[in-house]
Amino acid sequence: MATNDAVSGIKPPANLQIDSDKSTSWKKWLQQFEWYATAIQLDKKPADVQAATFMAVIGSDAIEIYNSFNLSNADQNNLQIIKERFREYFAPKTNISFERYIFFKIEQNEDERFNEFLTRIKTQASKCEFDQLFDEMLKDKIVFGIRSSQVREKLLTEDRLDLNKAITICKTSELASKQLEEFEGKNRADKVLIVRNKNVKQEQNKYFDCRRCGTNYKSRECPAFNKPCTKCNKNGHFAKMCRTKKNNANKQKNRVNAIEESSNSDDEVYISTIITGEKKNLTENVQVGSVKFTVKLDTGAVCNVLLRHLMDKAKGKLKPSRTKNLMSCTDDRMAVLGETDLQCKLKNEKQNITFKIVEERVMPILGLNTCEKLGLIARVKTLKEGTDDIFEGLGCYKDYEYDIDLIENPKLEIKASRKIPHAIRHEVKQELDRMVKLDVIKPETAPTPAVSPMVIVKQKGKIRICIDPSDVNKNILRRHFPLTTIEEISADIQGSKFFALLDCTKGFWQIKLTERTQKILTFATPWGRYSFKRLPFGVSSAPEIFQEILTNLLSKYKNVRVSIDDIFIHAKSRDELQKTVHEVLETLKASGFKLNKTKCIFEATRIKFLGYIVSANGLEADPDKMPVQKNLGSALLQDGQPIGYGARALTKSEQNYPQIEKVALAILFGCKKFHEYVYGKELTVESDHKPLETIFKKNIQSAPARLQRIMFNLTPYSPKVIFKKGTEIPLADFLSRDCDASNLKYEQEENLKVAVILPMSLNAKEELINATKEDSHLQLLLKTIQQGFPEKVNELPTELQHYFNFKEELTYLKGIIFKGDKIVVPKSQIQKILKSIHQGHLGIQSCLRRARQFLYWKGQYDDIVKLVKSCSVCEQTQRDNCKNTVLVKKIPTLPWQIVSSDLFELKGKTYLVICNSYSGYLDFEPLKNQSSYEVIEQLKKWFSTHGVPEELQSDNGTQYMSREFRIFQKEWKFNHVTSSPHHHQGNGLAEKVVQTAKNILRKCSIDKSDVQLALLNWRKTPQNENLGSPNQRLFSRVTRSPIPTTENNLKPKLIKGVPTELQLLRETQVKYSNKHTTRPVNFEINDKVRHKVAHRQWEGARVVEKPEDLRRSLIIQTDKGQTLRRNFSHLHRTQADIISNKVVVPETKYTDVSVQAQSPELPSAPVQSSPSTPNYMQEQTLNQTGTAPRTSRFGRIIKPLHQTRPDDTRGCRRRMIYPMGEFLRDPLGIGAIGYRHGPGPFIYLARKQPGEVEELWSNT
Predict the structure, then answer these.
(1) Mean pLDDT on 364-384
(2) Rounded to two decimals, what is the model's pTM?
(3) Above 50 in pLDDT, residue 22?
(4) Could you tell me which residues come within 8 angstroms of residue 1157 by beta carbon, excluding any fewer than 6 positions away?
């Protein structure tokens, strides 16, 4: 049995390449994988290993497809499920009729071998579902689709022809035909590059090197003619000379019409086919005067071609040409009208180029000689085999880790993660995952001494992750390794004619970091922290570190110079250059470095390096770096002496930049101008613009959008910006005032985005831009931004002075003014913006956070607060008020001076409870019913036993607000004080003893013990050492109980200092209760308020009265016309509309009147209100003719009745039976009255409905 070691050498299939025919690519790749899986015995390995092997082999192109499956954890380890999901994805949506149409339409191509034709029709037939007719259909297709009529005739004459016979006949005939052609020496001149000339016959007997077969032979004797290539399966060349790239061997090749011209000016020039491995054509933009056109760079052409109409536009002069015709590979001729010499501008260089002029509509072409002369192409054929892998992947310098050098007592900071626009979050996360896979970064979970913010750069459509290590850079000790200067290059290249330039792939990322350095270079993201494992871009010491490593590595080569990640090689001969290039490549490869092949130039006679063009003539100024723009000036100083100057003009768009951005742009221009002098060194920038000194000390993200881009480009230089007056730096100021703008060119802003601005529709953007233009205030601000703010705030117009404190954050971009990355909103757009901000009815703080994230305008806070507070929807559904501070009630000085009473129900029984505020004495008794009569009778028993209290406290229950209770109150001479409706804390003492009473009853019910004995024990239990028990405070003695005690303990003894002790206890309670409370709001008459009617449900009202004797209650009139008493905790002032119909505050208040109840058995009796009972709290009886309103237990004012309808029983909610003659107010708490008259159970109810009074009868 084979082991894993025995099959470990088997290479897996290449990654799945997803092209236009996805289904076919998938089937072929899956077949290869199945063979590979069988070879390595994959089915014997664990399930997770099988799935991981499959995904590792399939390649990166399929990863996104796999992630879209959203497989569960179990399915991710099941190879069969994964393959099935891929099959479903790649399964083509076939149309059988259409596939059969394609099958019947197939014919053998002219150059197609029979095996290729057979494979093609078999593949198509498999899609047609022929089933049992498969072989018959293939046989018929061969007969009617074969190209050779002789073979078709032979097939038709064959008796009982089947598929195998047909295939054999076709293969035999094709082989015999080829052998016959070779035997007869027949050689067609199809698609051969020929050059006909007057002297062509003299050249036919000469030998030459052939690029089709690789040998030397006479003309028209190529052994590769019409022979198939085993690499690309095309005819006409051998595999060793095939130009098709290995990875794209099976792909269709591009055919580029290339023009060749001999050195002695042919009469005819033929167009051949050049095979390239890429689909892209190299092009370049050319300008002749004001005419611009695009040319194709064709290395297969040795002359240049231009269209006649382009020559006429460029005003070129046509002159005769010895070349008469251009011929294509299909023998199509294009007549050459002549030739012309034009002065062309390519990449800011002017060259005289000779073009062949044609009439046909073809693409203009630059030939090989011209491309090489202009440095548009470079030969790469000198690379030896075995060096290709140096261009693949990301390198890593071996045996080295950079350990960052910090100053003593570094001050490192922890920065929070910055917000990422939702539109690019997915791309950013993908780039982070890619960097983790490349081993550039790693997720960090351990504590780190520093955390830098992440910077997202979107360049050329791709996301790039960087960090803003501004705080870390302040603590780094620099090594100050010298960088290469252009003067050193100038001295070295004397006599050199050939040059090369190598570029390291993501150079800094090829340097590993120590564990300590990784902790310091940690950055924050919305998905957690990550640490760099490789040297990141932006660290101030990175350039000199990389320069030092490469310089020491390549110091043995005298003709090699290093500038950061660029390696410059020069030589006097081509052979010397090739030798040095190969040695350098081998050295870099052995050290672990990787190069970027697309940026490498392996051989050239002119090359750009350090801002100059290097050639055999020495150094020339790079036209791209020439100062052709206006108003930017810089000077390079050392020890106060100038050593370099620079100036350029501003483009049309740059002239509209704010002053702060123009100055920052000048700094960037100076750094790039003197790059070779300042890069990697400590740099101090002197500027006469004070705000820049401040903004360069902040993080990049805090700057406006365009300034962020400029600051990001300045990150490699780590400039320290200091302010100096303009008179102290006259040199740069002078350079910025005198520039040549004759060749001024206008460039678009760089395709670099450091921050993504708030996305908006085109209409919204246009509306905002137009509103900004029409806003006189913002136009004045814009003018100030462009001209620059004055040094003093009082020099600004009054309306702009508030912008002075953040003037460095203001900028103007594409018609919109920004404060940092926030849009400055025009006045006409504020109301519309406010409406958008408050969508969803967010609260004040949420709206403020939402607005401050993207927007700015003066008075933003006040506008948003006013908006939310005036929103009626928010007001109606807001949360409960914060708890108000506790109001300390009057402290009693005598026993039984103040008592509280309340009713409660337990297990179907109603109880009346009473408690003394001074002693805490508690008692409760069951009631037969909930009538006032029962309550009054029980209170009389207690009052007769303990005496009449000065004050009785209760809620607004109907039993306490009835006419009978007021009569009882007047006769027994005590004050009755009620709490605010729905505010149970107002009767807190009674509510507390209700809980105690219920606990006693529940516990005694469980163990069947005596309730009265339990109540006795509770009353004689001391509250604390100073206050004693309730019995001691009330009776001044200890009551006897079953617990043994001495006679001395039962003797009367007065408890002293009770009021003082009670005061201390209540102050302590208030201290803790008021920790999370607020002071009550002070309301005034006619204030608009909302009162709470249910959880998160508030209705509008107005304050109509402030009772002097009720410190926390108000009398309000609702939008429905009701007059209610409400506690402060159930009210809040509002600015929103409170009613649909305007509330009219009544001019007169209800007065205390005497009323009489008229019933058959209850005689009328005048009732006078107690002086201590306010008129709006009194229960008042009603008669049939109407009287004054009354107040329910919930504080609702009940209007009088006007008529009765005994037969109406609508709306009865509950039936209640009362003793004969009992008259009860509001038994249900819904604004109703009821009484029983006569011996029968007859109840009358009246219920208040919105807008009317409805009278109801219930006959039980």
Answers:
(1) 72
(2) 0.36
(3) yes
(4) 963, 1164, 1165, 1181, 1182, 1183, 1223, 1235
